[in-house]
Automatic annotation (TrEMBL):
It comes from the Eukaryota. It comes from Hypsibius exemplaris. SUPFAM superfamilies: HIT/MYND zinc finger-like, SET domain. Pfam families: zf-MYND. GO terms for cellular component: nucleus. GO terms for molecular function: zinc ion binding. This is MYND-type domain-containing protein. Keywords: Metal-binding, Zinc, Zinc-finger. Residues 28-71 form the MYND-type domain.
């Protein structure tokens, strides 16, 4: 079967899924809907664990089978003051509970078109991992590290990462579930962990370019990866993974979705894919050296040029994209730019960690304000040297835009251009354009806002569909609110001016 741009390729309700902790009170934990903030439409909190939230009793009842054991353990954590485990640990716990109930496949209506995939048929890449030692499930009170489990035999570095991750997860999992809920068969845990790291998907709801949850689906795992995908997916219509064609596709075997952040450079993307999925990507993006060179680009220093100086992996500058001026890596301008890139990388990492601190305090708020001031100063320092398509520049701009920078919507303009260049026609670009249009509207730039939302409409009609709330809201702003505001603005301009006193 072939697909045209905008066609829905698959609808698949995930076999196991959880909501990110930070979104626990914003979305229904069963259907992932985000209700309108009205008195009669707020989510109802689970009275026992006080963690899960649901649209109504119907969603709560439907979720109970998966939430029952989790609810009890979350209640105990709440009473003892223990930390709530992070998303991937709660997802692994749900997988183990489903296996304990004998659930290893989807119900008949969970995937359209129907899929024959089951939990047992999911790939683990077991031929590329080796069991280094026997699993030991620690008791809840034990501080000892369990022996490591699956690791890559081909790479010491990857092995160390897998050992560390698995050790950490097992300790947290036992503390959360309790030893009585852990599987007695060591292979059950080994396979669950392996299948999770190879097949799990980040869940997006199409309202924001960040994940709101994680899932282990069955049907949707059939799609292979490309950093330049021809299909996209998001959560729609009550926690269904909806896969949509971004271009014409010959058959379902040719469908490719993206497993990683395509705005990372090729070495980073390949390392991530190798670590989690055990393959080296050879897609169009990975083979495009110029794309990576632009990710390290600088502004051309030639006055009035406005071109970019792409740089190789060793930061050897290439000819300007506009005036073709050539430089060398020994030029003071280039060496100074490389130093700035190192400073950006260090400071953004430090500031991101500061803002991710869940425990808020007056001291932390002051530290965050100070960090925003420092990174804003760094932005002004680099903007005449580092090109906006440089990934280090993008990371800095994203951090500022996400944390209420006084630079405001102008940062979104820069981010949108980067999304357009690196993502192309995608849901991510559509969402950025909606955000950009919103900021322009708030600044009374009505023509600019209309233009942004016109481009967003073209994309969202394909990626989200006409029934998606984000598409409907965007269309209302573009076709109703902006014309009304333009009319009001026009009428105001026609009013006679008050004489000066």
């Amino acid at each position: 079967m072939s697909y045209q741009k905008g066609d829905i390729i698959m609808r698949n309700r995930p076999w196991a899924y959880v909501l990110e902790d930070k979104h626990k009170s914003a979305y229904c934990h069963f259907c992932f809907r985000r209700p309108i903030e009205k008195a009669d439409q707020k989510l109802r909190r689970c009275t026992q664990c006080l963690f899960a939230h649901y649209c109504d009793g119907k969603c709560a009842k439907s979720a109970w089978k998966d939430h029952k054991v989790e609810c009890n353990r979350l209640s105990l954590a709440l009473k003892s003051g223990a930390d709530i485990p992070e998303c991937n640990i709660r997802l692994l716990a749900r997988i183990l509970m489903k296996l304990a109930r004998g659930e290893r496949s989807d119900p008949p209506d969970a995937c359209i078109p129907p899929s024959e995939r089951t939990y047992d048929s999911l790939c683990t890449h077991a031929d590329q991992v080796e069991l280094l030692s026997q699993i030991k499930i620690p008791s809840e009170s034990s501080n000892a590290h369990p022996n490591p489990l699956p690791v890559l035999s081909a790479s010491i570095e990857s092995s160390v990462l897998q050992i560390t991750a698995f050790t950490y997860i097992i300790e947290k999992l036992v503390a959360f579930l309790g030893k009585e809920n852990m599987p007695t068969d060591k292979n059950v845990l080994k396979n669950a962990y392996s299948k999770l790291i190879v097949n799990a998907m980040t869940l997006y709801d199409g309202a924001w370019p960040y994940g709101i949850g994680a899932a282990l689906p069955l049907g949707a795992t059939r799609f292979d990866h490309a950093c330049k995908p021809n299909a996209d997916y998001m959560i729609r219509d009550g926690c269904q993974i909806v896969v949509t064609a971004l271009e014409d596709i010959a058959s379902i075997e040719d469908v490719r979705i993206c497993y990683c952040n395509s705005m990372e450079m090729t070495p980073q993307r390949r390392a991530t894919l190798k670590e989690h999925y055990y393959f080296e990507c050879q897609c169009a993006f990975c083979l495009d050296e110029n794309r990576d060179n632009m990710m390290r680009s600088l502004w051309c220093p030639e006055k009035g040029c406005g071109g970019a100086i792409p740089c190789t992996a060793k930061f050897i500058p290439l000819p300007c994209t506009k005036c073709r001026m050539e430089m060398t890596g020994k030029d003071t301008y280039v060496r100074g730019a490389v130093s700035l890139l190192s400073e950006i990388n260090e400071k953004v990492a430090a500031y991101t960690a500061l803002f991710e601190n869940a425990e808020s305090s007056p001291e932390l708020v002051e530290q965050q304000k100070a960090s925003n001031q420092e990174i804003t100063q760094l932005y002004h320092k680099i903007k005449s040297t580092i090109h906006p398509l440089n990934v280090f520049y993008i990371k800095l701009a994203v951090h500022l835009a996400d944390h209420d920078s006084p630079l405001g919507w102008k940062l979104y303009l820069e981010e949108t251009e980067a999304y357009r260049y690196y993502h192309g026609f995608s849901a991510f670009l559509g969402i950025r354009l909606v955000l950009q249009g919103g900021f322009q509207l708030a600044s009374q730039l009505l023509d600019e806002a209309a233009k942004s939302l016109e481009e967003a409409e073209t994309i969202l009609r394909v990626t989200h569909g006409k029934d998606h709330p984000v598409y409907k809201d965007m269309l209302n702003v573009k076709d109703v609110q902006i014309p009304q505001m333009k009319h009001l603005q026009h009428m105001t301009n026609k009013l006679p001016k008050m004489p000066k006193s």
